[in-house]
Automatic annotation (TrEMBL), chain A:
Reductase C-terminal domain location: 322-400
Keyword Oxidoreductase: yes
Organism in which the protein naturally occurs: Marinomonas pollencensis
Any one GO CC term of the record: cytoplasm
Domain FAD/NAD(P)-binding: 5-303
Protein name per the record: 3-phenylpropionate/trans-cinnamate dioxygenase ferredoxin reductase subunit
Cofactors (names): FAD
Keywords (A to Z) from UniProt: Dioxygenase, FAD, Flavoprotein, Oxidoreductase
One GO MF term: dioxygenase activity
InterPro entries referenced in this protein's UniProt entry, alphabetically: FAD-oxidoreductase/Apoptosis (IPR050446), FAD/NAD-bd_sf (IPR036188), FAD/NAD-binding_dom (IPR023753), FAD/NAD-linked_Rdtase_dimer_sf (IPR016156), Reductase_C (IPR028202)
KW DNA-binding (keyword) present: no
UniProtKB/TrEMBL annotation, chain B:
Native organism: Marinomonas pollencensis
Protein name per UniProt: 2Fe-2S ferredoxin
PANTHER family associated with the record: FERREDOXIN-2, MITOCHONDRIAL (PTHR23426:SF65), FERREDOXIN/ADRENODOXIN (PTHR23426)
Gene3D superfamilies in alphabetical order: 3.10.20.30
Cofactor(s) needed by this chain: [2Fe-2S] cluster
Molecular function via GO: 2 iron, 2 sulfur cluster binding; electron transfer activity; metal ion binding
Stored InterPro entries: 2Fe-2S_ferredoxin-like_sf, 2Fe-2S_ferredoxin-type, Adrenodoxin-like, Beta-grasp_dom_sf
One record GO biological process: P450-containing electron transport chain
Family: Belongs to the adrenodoxin/putidaredoxin family.
Length: 406, 106
């Protein structure tokens, strides 16, 4: 074995790909994977879905079983936090004082929930939702008939609302913007989700900001809104977005700008350090600008480029962003990014049905598709967006034309 | 436990022991078989674990669900025996199963 060590910080989706990919790319030195949580890297999307509902357990969420890390000779240090990085001496200091030398370093530190600073936020029964421990705490408070208030009408908020409602809780979602998912989707999709949740018995309060929480005996009982309304609550979940975990990188002097800045090879401003996943601010070659994504496929694909870079090879990260969200029995699949669109085309009935697609175009080209129970439209859109082809809006809208013939 | 043969588009062949209860997708991911991505983790959302089941095994692997069929209809080169690896659960009955992987997962 070569006398080289690659340290991967963060036991995340990106890390679960990066570590074995390093071996595939020919890394012969040591690989040490350091994670703060006590778990091997696991799939996060089920947290707000099948893990919250109890359909999945921790074991079934692991991205790869322990045997895979053993097989690829990856040393995994769980429940351990990195305290600082010394780039001059190429060392990593752990919270227990231990100092590890590295030849190469990878940041797979992900993101954490954006916190609110409101009166009463420390009451019991108020949670964020990002990891297994969060959901285990939440699960202990899920009681049919009790009231849950979700602060934030983004994907996490809506998925959690759907799951808690399915478990018999009375759920209210509070959103500051005039519509849910305002940051990421067209008004038609927001209206659909509002209708879907109403049909399923969840109430959504928009243009409402939370000013604080009140409790009894240390436990939350009410959510206070700016308009004076007091929403009764036994359980509160705050889902108002995430912030990238850049502090270690920043303290080490790496270039950071809404994420650790990397190039198309996942390389940071230090030639011995890469980064992958939610934590990176990276160039997107399809959309020709730099961005930060909160997405599993992004973490996985970028990690492959990062592994190649660490082995002195070049593998351009050039994947089309895509996302999904499951709520009730409704599957949303999103291909691409809608920012900058100049035209919206709807296929199917978004006002009364649960199956339609919203296409976003810019200068005649498809740049994004939100597909509600429309897997074919999603699959074909992925290809059309990646190819940068011009599309005929009338054909997109015409249900007589199958997606393959767009 | 079943021995599954994954044949990549290049012809490269992997004979893998997969535990009962795991999916064909997970078996491939655990062994870093490049022709299978499994982006969505197995919730039938992405079709990046497309496999073509060997004709002799089709009766044992069964037929796809509606959601799976719709995804399969839109993969680059669908075949009569196409399935998503995340929807096939390994059991002793599948010992010896052969699947071929497409040129690209999209």
């Amino acid at each position: 074995m070569e006398d080289k060590t690659c340290i991967i910080i963060g036991a995340s989706h990106a890390a679960a790909q990066l570590a074995p990919s390093l071996r595939q790319q020919g890394w012969q030195g040591k690989i040490i994977l350091i994670g703060e949580e006590p778990h091997l890297p696991y799939h996060r999307p089920p947290l707000s879905k099948t893990f919250l509902s109890g359909e999945q357990d921790v074991e079934s969420m692991l991205i790869r079983p322990a045997a895979v890390y053993e097989k690829f000779d990856i040393e995994v240090r769980l429940g351990m936090r990195v305290e600082s990085i010394d780039r001059a001496n190429k060392t990593v200091t752990l919270v227990n004082g231990e100092c590890l030398e590295y030849s190469k370093l990878a940041f797979c530190t992900g993101a954490r929930p954006r916190q609110v600073d409101l009166p009463g936020v420390d009451l019991k029964g108020i949670y964020y939702l990002r990891n297994i421990a969060d959901v285990e705490r939440i699960k202990s408070r899920v009681i049919a008939g009790n009231r849950a208030v979700i602060v934030g009408g983004g994907y996490i908020g809506l998925e959690t609302a759907a799951m808690l409602s399915s478990q018999g809780m009375k759920v209210t979602v509070v959103e500051m913007a005039p519509r849910v998912l305002a940051r990421v989707t067209a008004p038609e999709l927001s209206a659909f989700y509002r209708r879907l949740h109403r049909e399923e018995g969840v109430s959504i309060k928009t243009m409402a900001s939370v000013t604080g929480f009140q409790g009894r005996e240390g436990h939350v009982k009410q959510v206070l809104c700016a308009d004076g309304e007091e929403l009764p609550a036994d359980l509160v979940i705050i889902g108002i977005g995430v912030v990238p975990n850049v502090e270690l990188a920043e303290a080490a002097g790496l270039v950071v700008d809404n994420g650790i800045v990397v190039d198309q090879f996942a390389q940071t401003s230090d030639p011995d350090i890469v980064a992958a996943g939610d934590v990176t601010h990276h160039p997107n070659l399809i959309y020709s600008h730099s961005l930060r994504l909160e997405s599993v496929p992004n973490a996985t694909e970028q990690a492959k480029s990062a592994a190649a870079s660490l082995c002195g090879k070049t593998l351009v990260y050039n994947a089309l962003p895509w996302f999904w969200s499951d709520q009730y029995k409704v599957k949303l699949q999103i291909a691409g990014l809608s920012q900058g669109h100049d035209q919206v085309v709807i296929r199917g009935d978004h006002k009364t049905s649960r199956s339609f697609a919203v296409f976003y175009l810019r200068e005649g080209k498809l740049i994004c598709a939100d597909c509600i129970n429309r897997p074919q439209e999603f699959m074909i859109s992925k290809r059309l967006i990646a190819q940068g082809q011009s599309v005929d809006p009338q054909r997109l809208a015409d249900e007589a034309i199958v997606p393959r013939d767009f | 436990m079943a021995t599954i043969t994954y044949i990549e588009h290049s012809g490269e062949t992997h004979k893998i022991h997969v535990e009962n209860g795991k999916t064909l997708m997970q078996g491939a991911v655990d062994n870093l078989i490049e022709g299978i991505l499994g982006d969505c983790g197995g919730c039938c959302n992405c079709a990046t674990c497309h496999v073509m089941v060997d004709d002799a095994w089709v009766s044992k692997t069964g037929s796809p669900s509606e959601q799976e069929s719709e995804l399969l209809d839109a993969v680059p080169e669908p075949t009569e025996t196409s399935r998503l690896g995340c929807q096939i659960i390994v059991s002793d009955d599948l010992d010896g199963l052969i699947v071929r992987l497409p040129e690209e997962q999209f």
